[in-house]
């Protein structure tokens, strides 16, 4: 039986490609259910994190005798961290996997399969993102609600736009982490780069505090870089919707994703060509 | 018609070397030392459609490197190769729809999910028609005997069951050539036999071309009509399996354990006693001098046998024999043997 008799009528079309990558995402979603306890662990983590932040920011707002800091109320600030942590804990953490696959040569085996390696990992990662997001959001929202009450500024009609910016944030983060993983073609160990990226996200990405809280000079630099688009942009729009800011974030995200995805493709092509596996 | 063609294929790896100790580590930082290793040294061969070729050799001989070049995973350093008219490392995406590959040490099944989920995924990855895929899956499930554990998570399958599922996964898209890299590695005797039968069924039913690498001579004997032996990256034997058996696989190692102690008069003509214990013995037998069944009959006549094993000599020994037998003349694929054929088993039986 040849491949021709088995091929779908629309083989090679965008529809077939879409089905292919959707199937990749679906199987990883199924697989992630085998790691449901891990996701629950992340749920516990966000409870602790939001609880600590609630105490910290309640004290800060009291000490400053302020109802608004950097344009955000206490409720908004805490829900900001829920959304930022949601992205951080659910993101496609692929750099370690890619590093491993470069080092042990398993990346080479995927070259002989009819899919794009980088898209495979992206969609495979997305499958896991969905289950983690549901769990982390559930736990995070619960503790934030208990600590400061509901996010009254949230407008349901903005949710699709917030989700779009969040999806692009995952994409941007993937471009960066996959790039770090591909550095394994040059460096034996990429954990130092992972650590640097994590710390940058903490300070310049808005994970430790919203970018609006930073001194003006640092804010200027931060807004030029892609890191705040990963966490700050979606979290800020979630708690304080601003149409003008939405379009600005969208434009910047598309720009950075285009640039980084291009670089990623080049890095992958370079790496794939110099791949050497110990055979035989 | 030739479907796989290799001409003077070579692959060289550059490996970083480091002297032992702290000094060596520091020196490697400043002035790294590289060593060139020639894994494949000019392999040329042709494989016809429907052929089942065994590509065997000891560990490190260059088998996997060759199969990786043929499946487009590795770029060769030099030489040419075509698989179904495609240059594998240049057209690997197109080629992937027409070939299947199983790498014994690199599973493709999702570990925590049942095999049927991976099959579904592969149907989408290879962009198969759903109805055709269902029919194809049903055929493979039957041919490979995997119906009972199709819905069991892969992590709970035995290695043999897993390997049969791996083969099914790589056959779903109906490839014309199947590359099997060490499929029987790590399997027990029963699982090996089941897998060999499954491979044979697929080959017979689909006229499938199979390129099988192994360091297990048993795979060759039970499956392949043609065998290529490779050592240190070079082809040292390319002929019919029957020729290999006749010339180099005529020695067997027989282990026997009796139900009563061995007495001093234990003696076996035309066989070499390698080891002798109180209850058992290890015997080396040249089957051209005395057939296996003849020796087993003698052992059973001597005393009640409680356990018996018949083993091939290890691959390294066969290769030594090949070198020994052919130090001056190159063995060729046309079967023109350069030495007188050894006695057939029937002749040996008569002699014994």
Provide the helix percentage of chain B. 25-40%
| Most extensive protein-chain contact, per-chain counts | A-B, 36 and 56 residues
Order of adjacent strands in the largest pleated sheet of chain B: 5-6-7-3-8-9
CATH class of the largest domain in chain B: Alpha Beta
Task: Using brief descriptors, characterize the structure shown.
heterodimer, A: mainly alpha, 12 helices, globular, B: 352 residues, alpha/beta, Rossmann fold, Alpha-Beta Plaits, 6-stranded mixed sheet, 35% helix, disordered C terminus
Tell me what the structure shows.
The complex is a heterodimer of chains A (280) and B (352). Chain A has 280 residues and is mainly α. Chain A has one domain. Chain A is built from twelve helices and two strands; from the N terminus they run αααββααααααααα. Chain A has a two-stranded antiparallel ribbon with strand order 1-2. In chain A, strand 1 and strand 2 form a beta hairpin. In chain A, helix 3 packs antiparallel against helix 4 and helix 5 runs parallel beside helix 8. The model of chain A has no long low-confidence stretch (mean pLDDT 88). With 352 residues, chain B is an alpha/beta fold. Chain B folds into two domains: 208 residues, P-loop containing nucleotide triphosphate hydrolases (Rossmann fold), CATH 3.40.50.300; 62 residues, Alpha-Beta Plaits, CATH 3.30.70. Chain B has twelve helices and 13 strands. The two termini of chain B are 44 Å apart. The C terminus of chain B is likely disordered. Classes of the chains: A mainly alpha (280), B alpha/beta (352). At the A-B interface, helix 1, helix 2 and helix 6 of A face strand 1, helix 2, helix 3, strand 5 and helix 4 of B.
